[in-house]
Amino acid sequence: MSWPLVKLGEVAPSKALKKPVVRDEDNVWQLNLDMVESGSGKILNKIKAPLSEAGSSTHWFDSRHVLYSKLRPYLNKVVLPDEQGLATTEFVPMLPDPEMLDRRYLVHYLRSKQFVSWISDQVAGAKMPRVSMKVFWEHEIPLPPLEEQKRIAAMLEKADAIRQKRKQAIDLADEFLRSVFLDMFGDPVTNPKGWEVGELNSCLDFLTSGSRGWAKYYSEEGSKFIRIQNVGKNKLLLDELAYVNAPDTKEAERTRVKVNDVLLSITADLGRSAVVTKELSEGHINQHLALLRLKMSKLEPQFLSALLSSDGALKQFKAKNKAAVKAGLNFEDIRTFEVYLPPLTIQAKYADIYNVVMENLDNLMIQSDSAELLFSSLSQKAFSGQL
């Protein structure tokens, strides 16, 4: 069954709350883009602060709104607020007509792969892509009867709950590995076990950053193109892997990765690191990543990746970057990064534990992928009138 299509601007226009009731001016929820998890819309950090501390580029919202991030739409940050607050103008305060559009249905639609893919295509190529609101408001959303919208939203929420439980298990595995690292090696900031300390440069055979301007080489198949979204905190994230027809150039050769290379984020989200595995060998990195090829006699790749992803490393990165307008690391910052150097035998023990955990995590990821496929399939069918 197909549903009538209605323009977003007609059923969920941008209408900020004009007359907020502020009972406690010292305790106002203030929301910005960095506080929202991609995909889920989960609030990572719910900050309540004095109203006097709020910036001028803000608007009020309440629990009737849906907040849509118009900046970098591929991040898929859509919020279903549960109370009144102030959001930065990166968010559009959509106010669904309650007689026509269920706001939970709207949230699931805006988070759907179909919509995210479509809106991302509208802004492709921009350094800081921002949705054209004219295009956004003209977009037509399928609009079944209100009760059907609520049924669809409830079904998708149940499927999403399964997906989130798998994610929580994966997060617990990450936390376990962080705990093991601290137990074996201690905090990198205080070095309580008194390990030898040296500059990372003494442990490197090769250091480079990735290729710029390779969008023209994108293809459906070919060499894997590793971007910053493929590197997490001491792990690879391969859900959004891109491919390129790599040119036969010195730059392509320079940016080609090998097994056991360590990748490090050097722009924006510092502290992401991962080790290149066989499935990524011979791929290439983009300009937001650095490639570190180690002297294996001094550092074990998986140990270094865990160290670079630690809170202690992030403090070092921020200290090196304190004068910059935008977060970023240069080669000198990386070369002078201080690492502690436990015996290789102990580093190898950590790598063994890491590998065992990741093998079990692979099985969990298969289940997680199944939950993701179920959710995506239900979402696609729901908004095309097939459920």
Folded structure, characterized:
This protein has helices at 8-11, 103-111, 113-122, 133-138, 146-185, 250-254, 301-308, 311-320, 331-335, 344-382, and strands at 5-7, 28-31, 47-49, 58-61, 66-69, 78-79, 85-88, 91-94, 140-142, 197-199, 204-209, 218-219, 223-226, 242-244, 262-265, 273-275, 284-285, 289-294, 338-340. The longest helix has 40 residues, at 146-185. The strands form six sheets. The protein has a four-stranded mixed sheet, with no helix packed on it. Strands 11-18-15-16 form a four-stranded antiparallel sheet, covered by helices on one side. A four-stranded mixed sheet has the order 12-14-13-17, with no helix packed on it. It is built from ten helices and 19 strands. One of its GO terms (biological process) is DNA restriction-modification system. Keywords: DNA-binding, Restriction system. Belongs to the type-I restriction system S methylase family.
